[in-house]
Amino acid sequence: DTGVSQNPRHKITKRGQNVTFRCDPISEHNRLYWYRQTLGQGPEFLTYFQNEAQLEKSRLLSDRFSAERPKGSFSTLEIQRTEQGDSAMYLCASSSLAGVATQYFGPGTRLTVL
Amino acid sequence: DQQVKQNSPSLSVQEGRISILNCDYTNSMFDYFLWYKKYPAEGPTFLISISSIKDKNEDGRFTVFLNKSAKHLSLHIVPSQPGDSAVYFCAATRFSGGGADGLTFGKGTHLIIQP
Question: For B40-68, what is each residue's pLDDT tens digit?
Fold first, then answer.
């Protein structure tokens, strides 16, 4: 049983650079979610997909952020022109539509913007 | 505006005793609640959940209680074990049966189990 995987696990970049993260959900999970967590806070919802359709975007998802799930399987989250305030743990989660709301999280990608 | 609040940043409990973690919410639209456990540098791990149509759910050493009128839930761990030391997050969402919206999390409670 493979869980949610995320790559890379760590990313260090310079301010102004673009970064892209990948999330592979649990097989056959229809919904995929992205969250961001900063120090001392709980995870904050960014966006989610049902299959390839992006159903909701949080107001936290500025224009510099874009997420895709082109074939309804893995997803990518891109941040353009990174800022120091983007430094955080980016978490991905997936869930099935089989009548349960439980979301299963991956290990996260730690982004540090210098 | 915090819609899910965990007012105790930390809690210290002796091994073998009961740990009680509390959570309050303000959004009446929430109808499904979850507890997650998190170790440093790892993603949250699902522990237990409860639907708003119930007031209690048990799974082994973990029990979650929901008081809808007070908009309050609590997680009981009994007996507490050293491996339970972690940060615990309360989360809430709307669940339509066809799937859940994004989760709204509290800030977490750091549970420390003393030997």
Answer: 888 999 999 999 999 999 999 999 999 99
Residue pair A94/A103 in contact (Cβ under 8 Å)? The answer is yes
* Intra-chain end-to-end CA distance of chain B, in Å: 38
Find tokens 């509290």 and name the residue. B106
pLDDT in tens, A39-77: 999 999 999 999 999 999 998 888 999 999 998 899 999
Considering Cα of A54, then A44, then A101, then A103, what sign does the dihedral take?
positive
CB atoms within 10 A of CB B90: 28
Q: Does A54 touch chain B (CB under 8 A)?
A: no
Assign A86 to helix, strand or coil.
helix
Of the partner residues A56, A104, A108, the one whose CB lies closest to the CB of residue B102: A56
- B61-66 long-range contacts (CB < 8 A, ≥24 apart) are B62/B35, B64/B33, B64/B35, B66/B33
Cβ distance of A103 and B42 shorter than 8 Å: no
